[in-house]
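Teaching assistant's notes for section 4

Start the section by putting this record on the projector. Ask students to predict, before seeing the second block, whether Phosphohydrolase will look compact or extended. Collect guesses on the board.
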Amino acid sequence: MKFKKFGQKGQVLSENKIYKGPIFDLVKQVIKTPDDLTVERDLIKHGPAVNILALTPDHRIILNEEYRTGVNREVIALPAGLTDPNESDEEAVRRELREETGYQAQEVKMMTYVTSSDGFTNEMVGLALVKFDPSNQGERHFDADEYVTNHLVPFEEALQLVKDGKIFSAHSVASILYFNNFERDF
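Reveal the predicted structure now:
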């Protein structure tokens, strides 16, 4: 087998907290790797999150327009959010979809999990596929510091937005392409 060390963990020899914030912590770690190297690394500790490809019976999906600090502009992306403590991924998907769009998930399937940038953060994002009824929309409930505009677009249009570089959120790109390649019969 080619990948003999796949999944082997390093041994954290020490960890010092540099910063504690509301969404992430920054720590400095000394680690003994599976290759028997001792390395010092900075790590952004970040809780789990979900990214939601919500699909109507006629294959339209929800795309959000939302301001994102990291790129300092409005972006186009799938609904997403942090998983609350003691909340399952499916519960987070249902809650986030309801909060950001007002829609209720009828069926939830976790497609796969991705990391954001595993060289410096432990954030793990569950990519979810949801069926929902677009005629049944309730109120949205945003966090105090967010505002999201929702759009229902044909899936093929979203795929073209990825191709054109207008959807560039890694989680959204991964969800859309994963669905296109592996889940089209959902």
